[in-house]
Amino acid sequence: MSSYNPADPADLVVSVDTPGAAGTVAAVERARAAQPAWSAAGAAARSAALTHAAEAVEAHAAELAALMVREVGKPLAEARAEVARTAAIWRYYAQAPYAPSGALHEPAAGEGMLLTRRRPYGVAGLITPWNFPLAIPTWKAAPALAVGNTAVLKPAPEGTACALRLAELAGLPEGVLTVVPGGAEEGAALVGSADVVSFTGSTAVGQAVIAATTARGVPVQAELGGLNAAIVLPDADLGQAAAHLAAAIAGYAGQKCTATSRVIAVGEAYEPLVGALAKALAGAAAGEPGDPATVCGPVISAAALDRLTGAVDSARAAGAELLTGGGRVERPGWFVEPTLLARVPAGHPLLEEEFFGPVAVVLPAADLDEAIALANATPHTLATSVHTRDLDAALLAADRLDAGMIRVNAPSSGVDFHLPFGGAKSAGYGAREQGQAALDFFTASRTVTLLPAGGAR
Question: Does the active-site annotation cover 58?
Answer without folding.
Answer: no
